[in-house]
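Sample entry (266 residues):
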Amino acid sequence: MEMPIEKYSGLNFHTWRVKIQMQLMNKNLWGIVNGKETTPTDASKLLEWQSRDDRAKAIIGLALSDSELHHVDLDKSSKDIWDTLNKLFGAKAVNAKFSLKLQLYRFKMDDIVSMSSHINNLRSLIRQLAEVKAAIEDEDAKAILLNSLSSKYSNVVFTLSQIQSQSLDDMIAALLAEEKRTTKDAEGHSQQESAFYSRTRKYHRRSDKSEIECHYYRKRGHTAWDCRVRANDVLKGKVISNTANIAMVEDPPDAEGSEDSDEYVL
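Predicted structure, serialized as tokens:
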């Protein structure tokens, strides 16, 4: 089952055009649309050619939004319709050439974007520039790609910049492999930190608290933070003020049973 193509409504013409071209190629109709298969003079072949031309027109027309459908003249061939669309909307892409070049030369990697997404974004820019007759050579694309990477890739950037003979595809493969390696290392480091934190917590839970004095209850063996008496007093509303870890308590507990009001560090 074919995936439906989003209808063209005036935006991203180059992407839409590539998708339509692939669909026409899949149906063996692209030769008619690009003009390589001209109208046959043999009457026995003309009927089949016209049928294929109609199918091509249907694919193109059904992939246009209602607002753009008026550009389709069914009395014309699929090639004429295709050329008309390219003339109308391709011109807009030409006007965007300078803007695309600015995007390319300012192209930088966002830390939250994966390497594969970053590379796809670069390829999209390069493809759009090629559509407006501003093709980028592989050597320039490699330099732009390396220059766009964040500082965490500085080592691999230095290494790859020393290899002059590698292709753009080889460089991309190396960068994807580096991302996979660093991600795996980061996951291993995170697991080590988690294990260390867990061991530290267990150590503190087991550590001797016999000499620790609670500044709230004035008993040894626990801190004020862990004091159950203090927790109960808070629930009962006996704590009448609490600022900067100092609490005034009504009838605070006393090691000797005193009921005098006093200040306690919580």
